[in-house]
Amino acid sequence: MNATLKEILDDRVAQAIIAINIITSIILLAGSKGALTNVVSNLEGVLVLAVGSFFFYRNWKLYGNMTEGKVWMLFFGGMLLSMVGMIGTTIAERAGIAALSNSIVVLRSLAYVLFTSGFALKIKFSGYRPSFNDTLIAAMFAAMYGLLVFTLAVGPGIIWGEFDIIIDSYAMLAVIEIFILFVVVMILQMDVSARGWIPIAIGMFFISVGDALYNFFMDYASTHGGTYDGHPYRLIWYYGLWLVSFGAYYLRKKHLEMIM
Amino acid sequence: MDGETMPNDLFQSVVEHLGFLGDIFSVGIVKKGISKQGADPESVTCPQMIEALDDHIIPSVQSFVTPQKADEVRRKIQKTISRAS
């Protein structure tokens, strides 16, 4: 058996996630508004969900009853939930069911917690021993992430005096995101390779910022009787997804290189 | 077989002990472990396999399972190696 070939095949699913994200990001960037972006946006959700399900299934089979298996379940379960949440939010928004839409946003944020903490645990189990500088960089990015998410989530509301919107959902979203930061830092306990962590940290930041800005401008438009499609901010969300996928791919690759 | 020769019995039996990881990981981990000792699947010896076990195979297994389970695997493989030597 050729382990190198098998290794490449084994990583094909991760490569597919990255490829999907790159292609859809380019399409979204090319056609920033209109029906095409709606179609692509929803298609990406469905595709990532399909690929995520497949990945989940593969890892369930491979690691099902092992300690690390539970970590994988947390990671991919979180990813899957966040994808379901994304599609659910879109459906609820289109159907005009605001309460359901808000509930799904909270559920999705909780999915990010699962996703991130699962991934942090995964890194820890892979046994990397980082240098002090690596750890410092990781901690710095984590701190920046929390601080910027909070600023961006609350800042626009303060500037425009839209306090009802802040109280409504964005402060809550920021608190949840900062909670993610604490969970991650606690779990990592200075035991992570910064090289893999950096794209994940930036990616999570993009996802949160994209989400917060998208929701803010959508709500802002609706409370002022206007309409806004918010696609540029959805694009930030997708870039975040792409970066997280890249980080995940890198760390998975590193783990395979270490053992095989 | 792409012109490859057959792995020896020792290699095969250690791979079988790691079968719970799936064939990709089990073969890959043992192969890398013995290659660090300058051996290959066709001609690996018992002393080389013992070195590979401590140096690479068990640490790799530990990245998937609990230390207790990894110890259990180590004991089983050591028993197999001592039977083969």
Descriptive keywords:
heterodimer, A: 260 residues, mainly alpha, 0% strand, globular, disordered N terminus, B: 85 residues
Describe the 3D structure.
The complex is a heterodimer of chains A (260) and B (85). By secondary structure, chain A is mainly alpha-helical. In chain A, 87% of the residues lie in helices and 0% in strands. Chain A has 9 helices and no strands. Chain A has helices at 3-10, 12-30, 35-63, 67-95, 98-125, 132-159, 163-188, 194-223, 231-259. The longest helix of chain A has 30 residues, at 194-223. The model of chain A is unreliable at 1-9, 60-69, 127-136, 163-172 and 185-194 (pLDDT under 50). Chain B has helices spanning 9-17, 23-35, 46-62, 67-84. By secondary structure, chain B is mainly alpha-helical. The mean pLDDT of chain B is 86. Helices cover 67% and strands 0% of the residues of chain B. Chain B is globular, with a radius of gyration of 12 Å. The N and C termini of chain B lie far apart (28 Å). The interface between A and B is medium-sized, with 19 and 20 residues.
SSE layout:
The complex is a heterodimer of chains A (260) and B (85).
Chain A: H1 3-10, H2 12-30, H3 35-63, H4 67-95, H5 98-125, H6 132-159, H7 163-188, H8 194-223, H9 231-259
Helix pairs in contact in A: 2-3, 2-9, 3-4, 4-5, 5-7, 6-7, 6-8, 7-8, 8-9
Chain B: H1 9-17, H2 23-35, H3 46-62, H4 67-84
Helix pairs in contact in B: 1-2, 1-4, 2-3, 3-4
Question: What is the subunit organization of this protein?
Answer: heterodimer
Compute the separation of the termini of chain A in Å. 12 Å
Q: What is the tally of helical segments of chain A?
A: 9
Summed over residues and divided by their number, the pLDDT of chain B gives a mean of 86
Helix and strand composition category of chain A = mainly alpha
Give the overall shape of chain B: globular
Number of strands of chain B: 0
Tell me the major beta sheet of chain B.
none
Structural class of chain B: mainly alpha
Low-confidence stretches of chain B: none
Largest interface chains and counts = A-B, 19 and 20 residues
What does the overall shape of chain A look like?
Answer: globular
Measure the end-to-end span of chain B: 28 Å
Q: How many E-type strands of chain A?
A: 0
Q: What percentage of amino acids of chain A are in beta strands? A: under 5%
Q: What would you report as the Rg of chain A, rounded to the nearest angstrom?
A: 19 Å
